[in-house]
Design brief:
With about 475 residues, the chain is α+β, with helices and mostly antiparallel strands. It has 23 helices and 13 strands. The strands form 4 sheets. Strands 3-4-5-2-1-8-9 form a 7-stranded mixed beta sheet. The protein is elongated. The relative contact order is 0.05. Bound molecules: adenosine-5'-triphosphate and magnesium ion. Magnesium ion (MG) binds near residues 56 and 58. One of its GO terms (molecular function) is poly(A) RNA polymerase activity.
Length: about 475
Protein backbone atom coordinates (compact mmCIF):
# COMPACT_ATOMS: atom_id res chain seq x y z
CA UNK A 1 0.00 0.00 0.00
CA UNK A 2 1.47 3.40 -0.95
CA UNK A 3 1.91 5.83 1.90
CA UNK A 4 3.00 9.43 1.64
CA UNK A 5 5.95 10.63 3.54
CA UNK A 6 5.19 12.62 6.63
CA UNK A 7 7.57 15.44 7.40
CA UNK A 8 9.44 14.76 10.66
CA UNK A 9 7.50 17.43 12.52
CA UNK A 10 4.18 16.02 11.39
CA UNK A 11 5.29 12.50 12.28
CA UNK A 12 6.25 13.85 15.70
CA UNK A 13 2.88 15.56 16.07
CA UNK A 14 1.04 12.33 15.33
CA UNK A 15 3.29 10.32 17.65
CA UNK A 16 2.60 12.85 20.40
CA UNK A 17 -1.16 12.45 19.91
CA UNK A 18 -0.77 8.67 20.11
CA UNK A 19 1.43 8.92 23.21
CA UNK A 20 -1.02 11.28 24.92
CA UNK A 21 -3.86 8.88 24.24
CA UNK A 22 -2.54 5.49 25.25
CA UNK A 23 -6.01 3.97 24.82
CA UNK A 24 -5.45 4.14 21.04
CA UNK A 25 -2.64 1.57 21.01
CA UNK A 26 -4.55 -0.57 23.52
CA UNK A 27 -7.59 -0.61 21.28
CA UNK A 28 -5.46 -1.41 18.23
CA UNK A 29 -3.96 -4.41 20.00
CA UNK A 30 -7.39 -5.74 20.89
CA UNK A 31 -8.30 -5.74 17.20
CA UNK A 32 -5.06 -7.21 15.87
CA UNK A 33 -5.19 -9.93 18.55
CA UNK A 34 -8.63 -10.82 17.21
CA UNK A 35 -7.23 -11.00 13.68
CA UNK A 36 -8.69 -7.67 12.55
CA UNK A 37 -7.45 -4.33 11.32
CA UNK A 38 -8.18 -1.02 13.03
CA UNK A 39 -7.26 2.51 11.97
CA UNK A 40 -8.04 6.06 13.06
CA UNK A 41 -9.69 7.73 10.07
CA UNK A 42 -11.09 11.03 8.89
CA UNK A 43 -11.34 14.12 11.10
CA UNK A 44 -8.99 13.12 13.91
CA UNK A 45 -6.19 12.20 11.45
CA UNK A 46 -6.61 15.45 9.54
CA UNK A 47 -6.69 17.44 12.77
CA UNK A 48 -3.62 15.67 14.15
CA UNK A 49 -1.67 16.51 10.99
CA UNK A 50 -2.88 20.09 11.17
CA UNK A 51 -2.09 20.33 14.86
CA UNK A 52 -5.66 21.37 15.44
CA UNK A 53 -7.64 20.16 18.46
CA UNK A 54 -10.02 17.40 17.40
CA UNK A 55 -13.38 16.64 18.92
CA UNK A 56 -14.15 12.98 18.37
CA UNK A 57 -12.38 9.74 17.54
CA UNK A 58 -13.43 7.87 14.42
CA UNK A 59 -12.10 4.43 13.50
CA UNK A 60 -12.51 2.05 10.61
CA UNK A 61 -12.10 -1.69 10.97
CA UNK A 62 -12.35 -4.95 9.08
CA UNK A 63 -14.51 -6.31 11.93
CA UNK A 64 -18.29 -6.42 11.52
CA UNK A 65 -20.51 -4.73 14.14
CA UNK A 66 -21.06 -7.92 16.17
CA UNK A 67 -17.32 -8.52 16.25
CA UNK A 68 -16.62 -4.90 17.23
CA UNK A 69 -18.92 -5.41 20.20
CA UNK A 70 -17.30 -8.68 21.12
CA UNK A 71 -13.74 -7.32 20.84
CA UNK A 72 -14.35 -4.14 22.82
CA UNK A 73 -17.10 -5.34 25.17
CA UNK A 74 -15.04 -5.72 28.32
CA UNK A 75 -12.63 -2.88 27.48
CA UNK A 76 -15.12 -0.06 26.91
CA UNK A 77 -16.80 1.81 29.78
CA UNK A 78 -20.00 2.10 27.76
CA UNK A 79 -21.23 1.01 24.37
CA UNK A 80 -24.14 1.99 22.17
CA UNK A 81 -25.49 1.32 18.73
CA UNK A 82 -24.94 4.39 16.51
CA UNK A 83 -26.26 2.72 13.39
CA UNK A 84 -25.72 -1.00 13.18
CA UNK A 85 -27.06 -1.17 9.62
CA UNK A 86 -24.28 1.28 8.66
CA UNK A 87 -21.78 -0.65 10.73
CA UNK A 88 -21.16 1.94 13.43
CA UNK A 89 -20.76 1.18 17.14
CA UNK A 90 -20.19 3.94 19.69
CA UNK A 91 -17.96 3.49 22.73
CA UNK A 92 -16.88 5.48 25.71
CA UNK A 93 -13.46 4.96 27.23
CA UNK A 94 -12.67 7.24 30.14
CA UNK A 95 -13.55 10.74 28.91
CA UNK A 96 -13.32 9.81 25.22
CA UNK A 97 -16.16 9.15 22.79
CA UNK A 98 -15.24 6.71 20.04
CA UNK A 99 -17.04 5.59 16.91
CA UNK A 100 -15.91 2.41 15.22
CA UNK A 101 -17.27 1.63 11.77
CA UNK A 102 -16.86 -1.46 9.63
CA UNK A 103 -15.04 -0.89 6.33
CA UNK A 104 -17.51 0.07 3.67
CA UNK A 105 -17.63 -0.26 -0.05
CA UNK A 106 -20.44 1.20 -2.05
CA UNK A 107 -22.46 -0.90 -4.40
CA UNK A 108 -24.70 0.77 -6.90
CA UNK A 109 -27.93 -0.50 -8.13
CA UNK A 110 -27.57 0.56 -11.74
CA UNK A 111 -31.30 1.19 -12.07
CA UNK A 112 -31.83 3.38 -9.01
CA UNK A 113 -28.35 4.89 -8.71
CA UNK A 114 -29.01 4.89 -4.98
CA UNK A 115 -25.97 4.07 -2.89
CA UNK A 116 -26.50 1.28 -0.43
CA UNK A 117 -24.16 0.46 2.36
CA UNK A 118 -22.11 -2.65 1.80
CA UNK A 119 -19.37 -3.78 4.11
CA UNK A 120 -15.93 -3.98 2.53
CA UNK A 121 -12.76 -5.91 3.28
CA UNK A 122 -10.07 -3.29 2.79
CA UNK A 123 -9.24 0.11 4.13
CA UNK A 124 -8.51 1.26 0.56
CA UNK A 125 -12.12 0.88 -0.50
CA UNK A 126 -13.30 2.53 2.68
CA UNK A 127 -11.04 5.56 2.25
CA UNK A 128 -11.95 5.99 -1.41
CA UNK A 129 -15.59 6.66 -0.53
CA UNK A 130 -14.83 9.45 1.88
CA UNK A 131 -15.67 13.03 1.04
CA UNK A 132 -12.28 14.72 0.62
CA UNK A 133 -8.71 13.55 0.36
CA UNK A 134 -7.83 15.47 3.53
CA UNK A 135 -10.49 13.40 5.30
CA UNK A 136 -9.38 10.15 3.69
CA UNK A 137 -6.14 9.62 5.56
CA UNK A 138 -5.72 6.97 8.24
CA UNK A 139 -3.38 5.87 10.99
CA UNK A 140 -3.29 2.12 11.48
CA UNK A 141 -3.23 0.86 15.04
CA UNK A 142 -1.25 -0.21 16.91
CA UNK A 143 1.53 0.17 14.28
CA UNK A 144 0.97 3.95 13.80
CA UNK A 145 1.50 3.43 10.06
CA UNK A 146 0.25 6.48 8.19
CA UNK A 147 -2.02 5.80 5.19
CA UNK A 148 -2.61 8.44 2.53
CA UNK A 149 -3.83 6.99 -0.75
CA UNK A 150 -5.27 10.13 -2.31
CA UNK A 151 -2.75 12.83 -1.63
CA UNK A 152 -4.42 14.18 1.49
CA UNK A 153 -1.12 15.40 2.91
CA UNK A 154 -0.30 17.33 -0.23
CA UNK A 155 -3.78 18.85 -0.08
CA UNK A 156 -3.27 19.89 3.51
CA UNK A 157 -0.02 21.51 2.40
CA UNK A 158 -1.86 23.33 -0.38
CA UNK A 159 -4.91 23.94 1.80
CA UNK A 160 -7.13 22.41 -0.86
CA UNK A 161 -10.24 20.25 -0.90
CA UNK A 162 -10.19 17.56 -3.59
CA UNK A 163 -12.27 14.40 -3.78
CA UNK A 164 -10.68 10.90 -3.80
CA UNK A 165 -12.74 9.92 -6.86
CA UNK A 166 -14.02 12.43 -9.43
CA UNK A 167 -16.15 15.12 -7.80
CA UNK A 168 -19.03 14.23 -10.13
CA UNK A 169 -19.07 10.65 -8.93
CA UNK A 170 -18.57 11.64 -5.32
CA UNK A 171 -21.37 14.22 -5.32
CA UNK A 172 -23.76 11.85 -7.12
CA UNK A 173 -23.10 9.30 -4.41
CA UNK A 174 -23.94 11.84 -1.72
CA UNK A 175 -24.82 15.44 -2.65
CA UNK A 176 -24.38 16.50 0.97
CA UNK A 177 -20.64 16.46 0.26
CA UNK A 178 -21.10 19.72 -1.64
CA UNK A 179 -22.33 21.34 1.57
CA UNK A 180 -19.46 19.73 3.41
CA UNK A 181 -17.02 21.37 0.99
CA UNK A 182 -18.34 24.80 1.95
CA UNK A 183 -18.31 23.79 5.60
CA UNK A 184 -14.62 22.85 5.47
CA UNK A 185 -13.80 26.07 3.61
CA UNK A 186 -15.15 27.91 6.64
CA UNK A 187 -13.86 25.53 9.29
CA UNK A 188 -10.36 24.84 7.96
CA UNK A 189 -9.73 27.93 5.81
CA UNK A 190 -9.12 25.64 2.81
CA UNK A 191 -10.11 26.35 -0.79
CA UNK A 192 -12.21 24.00 -2.89
CA UNK A 193 -10.25 22.84 -5.98
CA UNK A 194 -11.53 24.25 -9.30
CA UNK A 195 -12.96 20.89 -10.43
CA UNK A 196 -14.78 20.62 -7.11
CA UNK A 197 -16.26 24.10 -7.53
CA UNK A 198 -17.38 23.36 -11.07
CA UNK A 199 -18.98 20.05 -10.09
CA UNK A 200 -20.76 21.84 -7.25
CA UNK A 201 -22.01 24.43 -9.72
CA UNK A 202 -23.23 21.81 -12.19
CA UNK A 203 -24.80 19.59 -9.56
CA UNK A 204 -26.18 22.08 -7.02
CA UNK A 205 -29.75 21.00 -7.73
CA UNK A 206 -28.98 17.50 -6.56
CA UNK A 207 -28.96 18.81 -3.02
CA UNK A 208 -32.74 18.52 -3.23
CA UNK A 209 -32.65 14.82 -2.31
CA UNK A 210 -30.72 15.44 0.91
CA UNK A 211 -32.70 15.72 4.14
CA UNK A 212 -33.14 19.19 5.59
CA UNK A 213 -31.59 18.03 8.86
CA UNK A 214 -28.33 17.00 7.24
CA UNK A 215 -28.15 20.26 5.29
CA UNK A 216 -28.87 22.25 8.44
CA UNK A 217 -26.15 20.48 10.43
CA UNK A 218 -23.54 21.35 7.80
CA UNK A 219 -24.81 24.93 7.60
CA UNK A 220 -24.44 25.22 11.37
CA UNK A 221 -20.88 23.92 11.28
CA UNK A 222 -20.11 26.31 8.44
CA UNK A 223 -21.57 29.25 10.36
CA UNK A 224 -19.67 28.61 13.58
CA UNK A 225 -16.44 27.99 11.67
CA UNK A 226 -13.56 30.46 11.55
CA UNK A 227 -14.44 31.93 8.16
CA UNK A 228 -18.17 31.57 7.53
CA UNK A 229 -18.10 34.34 4.93
CA UNK A 230 -15.80 32.30 2.68
CA UNK A 231 -18.04 29.26 3.05
CA UNK A 232 -21.17 31.29 2.35
CA UNK A 233 -19.65 32.90 -0.75
CA UNK A 234 -18.94 29.42 -2.09
CA UNK A 235 -22.53 28.34 -1.42
CA UNK A 236 -23.83 31.39 -3.25
CA UNK A 237 -21.37 31.26 -6.16
CA UNK A 238 -22.07 27.59 -6.89
CA UNK A 239 -25.85 27.94 -6.64
CA UNK A 240 -26.07 25.71 -3.56
CA UNK A 241 -27.42 28.61 -1.52
CA UNK A 242 -30.22 29.01 -4.06
CA UNK A 243 -31.21 25.45 -3.12
CA UNK A 244 -31.09 25.64 0.66
CA UNK A 245 -31.09 29.34 1.59
CA UNK A 246 -32.47 31.24 -1.43
CA UNK A 247 -33.05 34.39 0.64
CA UNK A 248 -29.28 34.91 0.71
CA UNK A 249 -28.52 35.12 -3.03
CA UNK A 250 -31.75 37.14 -3.40
CA UNK A 251 -29.93 39.95 -1.59
CA UNK A 252 -27.41 40.35 -4.39
CA UNK A 253 -29.76 42.39 -6.55
CA UNK A 254 -30.54 44.78 -3.81
CA UNK A 255 -28.84 48.13 -3.89
CA UNK A 256 -28.84 49.72 -0.48
CA UNK A 257 -30.78 52.87 0.27
CA UNK A 258 -27.73 55.10 -0.14
CA UNK A 259 -27.04 53.99 -3.70
CA UNK A 260 -23.67 52.64 -2.84
CA UNK A 261 -22.25 49.93 -5.03
CA UNK A 262 -22.19 47.71 -2.04
CA UNK A 263 -25.43 45.74 -2.18
CA UNK A 264 -27.41 44.23 0.65
CA UNK A 265 -25.63 40.90 0.16
CA UNK A 266 -22.18 42.40 0.73
CA UNK A 267 -23.58 44.45 3.60
CA UNK A 268 -24.98 41.30 5.24
CA UNK A 269 -21.66 39.48 4.99
CA UNK A 270 -19.89 42.49 6.51
CA UNK A 271 -22.42 42.64 9.34
CA UNK A 272 -21.79 38.95 10.00
CA UNK A 273 -18.06 39.59 10.17
CA UNK A 274 -18.50 42.59 12.45
CA UNK A 275 -20.83 40.63 14.71
CA UNK A 276 -18.21 37.89 14.99
CA UNK A 277 -15.65 40.51 15.98
CA UNK A 278 -17.96 41.60 18.83
CA UNK A 279 -18.97 38.10 19.82
CA UNK A 280 -16.46 37.73 22.64
CA UNK A 281 -19.05 39.49 24.84
CA UNK A 282 -21.10 36.30 24.74
CA UNK A 283 -20.27 33.28 26.85
CA UNK A 284 -21.64 31.13 24.06
CA UNK A 285 -19.11 32.29 21.41
CA UNK A 286 -18.88 31.09 18.67
CA UNK A 287 -22.58 31.79 18.75
CA UNK A 288 -24.88 30.32 16.12
CA UNK A 289 -27.82 32.60 16.97
CA UNK A 290 -25.99 35.89 16.49
CA UNK A 291 -24.40 34.57 13.30
CA UNK A 292 -27.73 33.49 11.82
CA UNK A 293 -29.35 36.75 12.85
CA UNK A 294 -26.60 38.94 11.39
CA UNK A 295 -26.57 37.02 8.14
CA UNK A 296 -30.35 37.12 7.78
CA UNK A 297 -31.23 40.47 9.35
CA UNK A 298 -32.04 42.13 6.02
CA UNK A 299 -33.73 39.27 4.15
CA UNK A 300 -36.97 41.24 4.27
CA UNK A 301 -35.48 43.86 1.96
CA UNK A 302 -36.16 42.36 -1.48
CA UNK A 303 -39.85 41.96 -0.67
CA UNK A 304 -40.29 45.43 0.79
CA UNK A 305 -38.25 47.46 -1.69
CA UNK A 306 -40.07 50.51 -3.06
CA UNK A 307 -38.68 53.11 -5.44
CA UNK A 308 -39.85 56.57 -4.54
CA UNK A 309 -39.43 59.90 -6.32
CA UNK A 310 -35.96 61.35 -6.42
CA UNK A 311 -34.46 57.91 -7.00
CA UNK A 312 -34.65 56.91 -3.36
CA UNK A 313 -35.32 53.35 -2.30
CA UNK A 314 -37.21 52.41 0.84
CA UNK A 315 -37.58 49.10 2.65
CA UNK A 316 -40.42 49.81 5.05
CA UNK A 317 -41.12 47.06 7.58
CA UNK A 318 -38.32 44.89 6.28
CA UNK A 319 -37.66 44.01 9.91
CA UNK A 320 -41.11 42.49 10.39
CA UNK A 321 -41.16 40.87 6.96
CA UNK A 322 -37.62 39.62 7.50
CA UNK A 323 -38.57 38.01 10.83
CA UNK A 324 -41.37 36.16 9.05
CA UNK A 325 -39.07 34.95 6.30
CA UNK A 326 -36.56 33.83 8.92
CA UNK A 327 -39.23 31.72 10.60
CA UNK A 328 -40.26 30.18 7.32
CA UNK A 329 -36.74 29.33 6.20
CA UNK A 330 -35.61 28.07 9.58
CA UNK A 331 -38.70 25.88 9.86
CA UNK A 332 -37.95 24.42 6.44
CA UNK A 333 -34.43 23.65 7.67
CA UNK A 334 -35.93 21.95 10.75
CA UNK A 335 -34.41 24.26 13.33
CA UNK A 336 -35.85 24.02 16.84
CA UNK A 337 -38.64 26.42 17.76
CA UNK A 338 -36.46 27.87 20.44
CA UNK A 339 -33.68 28.80 18.01
CA UNK A 340 -36.20 30.12 15.48
CA UNK A 341 -37.75 32.40 18.12
CA UNK A 342 -34.36 33.77 19.10
CA UNK A 343 -33.20 34.57 15.57
CA UNK A 344 -36.59 35.96 14.51
CA UNK A 345 -36.74 38.23 17.54
CA UNK A 346 -33.33 39.71 16.74
CA UNK A 347 -34.25 40.30 13.11
CA UNK A 348 -37.49 41.91 14.14
CA UNK A 349 -35.77 44.24 16.60
CA UNK A 350 -32.67 45.09 14.58
CA UNK A 351 -33.98 48.52 13.53
CA UNK A 352 -35.49 49.61 16.80
CA UNK A 353 -32.40 51.49 17.91
CA UNK A 354 -32.61 53.76 14.88
CA UNK A 355 -35.56 55.48 16.53
CA UNK A 356 -33.21 56.44 19.34
CA UNK A 357 -31.85 59.34 17.27
CA UNK A 358 -29.29 61.15 19.37
CA UNK A 359 -30.73 59.94 22.63
CA UNK A 360 -34.34 61.14 22.60
CA UNK A 361 -35.83 57.96 23.98
CA UNK A 362 -37.70 58.33 27.24
CA UNK A 363 -36.90 55.95 30.09
CA UNK A 364 -40.12 54.24 29.14
CA UNK A 365 -38.84 53.57 25.60
CA UNK A 366 -35.58 52.21 27.02
CA UNK A 367 -37.48 49.87 29.35
CA UNK A 368 -39.57 48.62 26.44
CA UNK A 369 -36.44 47.96 24.41
CA UNK A 370 -35.08 45.85 27.25
CA UNK A 371 -38.40 44.10 27.79
CA UNK A 372 -38.89 43.31 24.10
CA UNK A 373 -35.34 42.05 23.68
CA UNK A 374 -35.72 39.87 26.78
CA UNK A 375 -33.03 37.22 26.92
CA UNK A 376 -31.69 38.36 23.52
CA UNK A 377 -30.56 41.79 24.77
CA UNK A 378 -26.83 41.06 24.66
CA UNK A 379 -27.13 39.70 21.14
CA UNK A 380 -29.26 42.66 20.09
CA UNK A 381 -26.49 44.98 21.29
CA UNK A 382 -24.05 43.10 19.08
CA UNK A 383 -26.33 42.95 16.06
CA UNK A 384 -27.21 46.64 16.22
CA UNK A 385 -23.60 47.70 16.55
CA UNK A 386 -22.52 45.33 13.78
CA UNK A 387 -25.24 46.63 11.47
CA UNK A 388 -23.29 49.79 10.77
CA UNK A 389 -21.17 49.38 7.67
CA UNK A 390 -20.86 53.00 6.62
CA UNK A 391 -17.49 54.05 5.29
CA UNK A 392 -18.00 57.43 6.85
CA UNK A 393 -15.80 57.08 9.92
CA UNK A 394 -17.37 60.07 11.65
CA UNK A 395 -20.84 58.68 11.24
CA UNK A 396 -19.78 55.25 12.40
CA UNK A 397 -18.18 56.72 15.48
CA UNK A 398 -21.31 58.78 16.22
CA UNK A 399 -23.51 55.68 16.01
CA UNK A 400 -21.15 53.77 18.23
CA UNK A 401 -21.12 56.55 20.83
CA UNK A 402 -24.90 56.78 20.74
CA UNK A 403 -25.20 53.05 21.29
CA UNK A 404 -22.67 53.23 24.14
CA UNK A 405 -24.93 55.82 25.69
CA UNK A 406 -28.01 53.62 25.28
CA UNK A 407 -26.24 50.70 26.92
CA UNK A 408 -25.15 53.03 29.70
CA UNK A 409 -28.74 54.13 30.28
CA UNK A 410 -29.86 50.50 30.33
CA UNK A 411 -27.22 49.74 32.93
CA UNK A 412 -28.26 52.67 35.11
CA UNK A 413 -31.94 51.79 34.88
CA UNK A 414 -31.17 48.13 35.44
CA UNK A 415 -29.29 48.89 38.61
CA UNK A 416 -32.03 51.14 39.94
CA UNK A 417 -34.95 48.98 38.92
CA UNK A 418 -33.87 45.39 38.50
CA UNK A 419 -34.78 45.72 34.87
CA UNK A 420 -33.96 42.08 34.18
CA UNK A 421 -36.90 40.93 36.21
CA UNK A 422 -39.31 43.64 35.21
CA UNK A 423 -42.66 42.90 36.80
CA UNK A 424 -45.69 45.01 37.62
CA UNK A 425 -45.68 46.62 41.04
CA UNK A 426 -48.52 44.34 42.20
CA UNK A 427 -48.73 40.61 41.65
CA UNK A 428 -51.74 38.53 40.61
CA UNK A 429 -52.81 37.76 44.20
CA UNK A 430 -52.71 41.45 45.15
CA UNK A 431 -54.68 42.36 42.03
CA UNK A 432 -57.42 39.89 42.93
CA UNK A 433 -57.60 41.12 46.54
CA UNK A 434 -57.69 44.81 45.59
CA UNK A 435 -60.34 44.32 42.91
CA UNK A 436 -62.23 41.65 44.81
CA UNK A 437 -62.22 39.30 41.83
CA UNK A 438 -61.24 35.66 41.35
CA UNK A 439 -58.86 34.15 38.82
CA UNK A 440 -59.77 34.82 35.20
CA UNK A 441 -58.81 36.82 32.12
CA UNK A 442 -59.47 40.14 33.94
CA UNK A 443 -56.52 39.46 36.19
CA UNK A 444 -54.30 39.15 33.13
CA UNK A 445 -55.71 42.37 31.73
CA UNK A 446 -55.02 44.22 34.96
CA UNK A 447 -51.56 42.66 35.10
CA UNK A 448 -50.71 43.93 31.61
CA UNK A 449 -52.02 47.37 32.50
CA UNK A 450 -49.71 47.47 35.52
CA UNK A 451 -46.76 46.20 33.49
CA UNK A 452 -47.33 48.97 30.95
CA UNK A 453 -47.55 51.48 33.74
CA UNK A 454 -44.38 50.10 35.26
CA UNK A 455 -42.56 50.65 31.97
CA UNK A 456 -43.92 54.12 31.45
CA UNK A 457 -43.29 55.43 34.93
CA UNK A 458 -40.72 53.15 36.50
CA UNK A 459 -41.31 51.49 39.87
CA UNK A 460 -44.33 52.74 41.86
CA UNK A 461 -45.09 52.46 45.54
CA UNK A 462 -47.74 49.93 46.50
CA UNK A 463 -50.19 52.74 47.34
CA UNK A 464 -49.71 54.51 43.98
CA UNK A 465 -50.00 51.26 42.08
CA UNK A 466 -53.18 50.34 43.98
CA UNK A 467 -54.73 53.69 43.19
CA UNK A 468 -53.82 53.45 39.50
CA UNK A 469 -55.23 49.94 39.34
CA UNK A 470 -58.51 51.05 40.90
CA UNK A 471 -59.02 53.90 38.46
CA UNK A 472 -58.12 51.60 35.53
CA UNK A 473 -60.74 49.16 36.79
CA UNK A 474 -63.38 51.85 37.28
CA UNK A 475 -62.82 53.24 33.77
CA UNK A 476 -63.00 49.75 32.35
CA UNK A 477 -66.29 48.71 34.00
P1 LIG B 1 -15.72 17.32 12.54
O1 LIG B 1 -15.96 16.10 13.37
O2 LIG B 1 -14.65 18.23 13.00
O3 LIG B 1 -17.00 18.03 12.25
P2 LIG B 1 -15.07 15.40 10.52
O4 LIG B 1 -14.17 15.45 9.33
O5 LIG B 1 -14.74 14.42 11.59
O6 LIG B 1 -15.17 16.84 11.10
P3 LIG B 1 -17.60 14.12 10.42
O7 LIG B 1 -18.88 14.65 9.91
O8 LIG B 1 -17.46 13.83 11.88
O9 LIG B 1 -16.49 15.15 9.95
O10 LIG B 1 -17.25 12.83 9.59
C1 LIG B 1 -16.17 11.94 9.93
C2 LIG B 1 -15.47 11.43 8.68
O11 LIG B 1 -16.36 10.62 7.93
C3 LIG B 1 -15.01 12.52 7.72
O12 LIG B 1 -13.74 12.99 8.04
C4 LIG B 1 -15.06 11.81 6.39
O13 LIG B 1 -13.92 11.00 6.22
C5 LIG B 1 -16.23 10.88 6.54
N1 LIG B 1 -17.51 11.44 6.08
C6 LIG B 1 -18.45 12.05 6.84
N2 LIG B 1 -19.51 12.39 6.12
C7 LIG B 1 -19.27 11.98 4.88
C8 LIG B 1 -20.00 12.01 3.66
N3 LIG B 1 -21.20 12.59 3.58
N4 LIG B 1 -19.44 11.47 2.56
C9 LIG B 1 -18.22 10.88 2.63
N5 LIG B 1 -17.49 10.83 3.73
C10 LIG B 1 -17.99 11.35 4.85
MG1 LIG C 1 -15.87 13.96 13.33
Amino acid sequence: MPTSELTPDRRARIDAVLADNSFLAELGLLFTDAGHELAIVGGPVRDAVLGRPGNDWDFATSAKPDEIERITGSWADAMWDVGREFGTIGLRKGSHDLEITTYRSDAYDASSRKPEVNFGDTIDGDLSRRDFAVNAMAIRLPSAEFVDLFGGLADIEARTLRTPVTPEQSFSDDPLRMMRAARFVSQLGFTAAPEVVSAMTDMAERLEIVSAERVRDELNKLLIGDDPVAGLRLLVETGLAAQMLPELPALILERDEHHRHKDVYEHSLTVLEQAIALEARLESAPDLVIRLASLLHDIGKPKTRRFVEGGTVTFHHHDVVGAKLVRKRMRALRYSNDLIDQVAKLVELHLRFHGYGSGEWTDSAVRRYVRDAGDQLQRLHILTRADCTTRNAKKALRLQRTYDELEQRIAVLAEAEELDAMRPDLDGAQIMTILGIGPGPEVGEAYRFLLDLRMDRGPLSEADATEALKSFWAARS
